[in-house]
UniProtKB/TrEMBL annotation:
InterPro entries: KR_dom (IPR057326), NAD(P)-bd_dom_sf (IPR036291), Sc_DH/Rdtase_CS (IPR020904), SDR_fam (IPR002347). PROSITE patterns: ADH_SHORT. Residues 10-176 form the Ketoreductase domain. The keyword Oxidoreductase applies. PANTHER family: DEHYDROGENASE/REDUCTASE SDR FAMILY MEMBER 11 (PTHR43115), DEHYDROGENASE_REDUCTASE SDR FAMILY MEMBER 11 (PTHR43115:SF4). Keywords: Oxidoreductase. GO terms for molecular function: oxidoreductase activity, acting on the CH-OH group of donors, NAD or NADP as acceptor. It comes from the Bacteria. This is Short-chain dehydrogenase/reductase SDR. Pfam families: adh_short. It comes from Alishewanella jeotgali KCTC 22429.
Amino acid sequence: MSQANAVAGKVVLITGASSGLGESTARLLASLGAKLVVVARRAERLQQLVAEITAAGGEAVYQVTDVTKANDLEAAVNLAVSTYGRLDVMINNAGLMAIAPMSARRVAEWDQMIDINIKGVLYGIAAALPVFEKQNSGHFITISSVAGVKVFSPGGTVYSGTKFAVRAINEGLRHEVGAAIRTTTILPGAVESELKHGSKHAASAEFVQAFYQQNEIPADSVARAIAYAIEQPANVDINEIVLRPTVQEF
């Protein structure tokens, strides 16, 4: 079965879809015939994305959504079901990477990363799981990071903590619902996105920018990995994909 035939017609909800990995994934899946619900906080970016997808013959709707609010994600899932009649894939992509040493005690940034990177994923699961259980099918795809495999240092302790948590949550979810519902964790290395701009600590931000400049690969590298996981037959579950730029040592 070709990738296009396997993806075509699937209803996919993508968080953090206004830029980076989310936007790139939306464009690729739309080109393969998926029906999209794209959500993020920036309405203008979402409007433009949906306009371009539909102009190219694809199907997409959008909703302004803050993943730190459980009700917003419930509304996004409801939009998918009311528009397309079902939901096949929930891509928990929204994330924040605020790199800084623990000694800087940037507690507000810790809270933000926990709220977006962990709670945002949990809220996405909570919103989509009842639909998947009713359908007896569905697919959670969650974006972690290579920082969820090895602690990103210097300055990435809390960020890595959130990404280790995401990996554990998705694996635990697989044990609980894996008989009918698929779970995939994507763990990318340095990929072109706005994630690299999340650090406000000056020295850490400089380090991150240099790291990405030396290593990053295009966002569609991750989009293709996501499409690969979706295209598999229903009895095949790609549980984890770790991908790095060839030149990245970490």
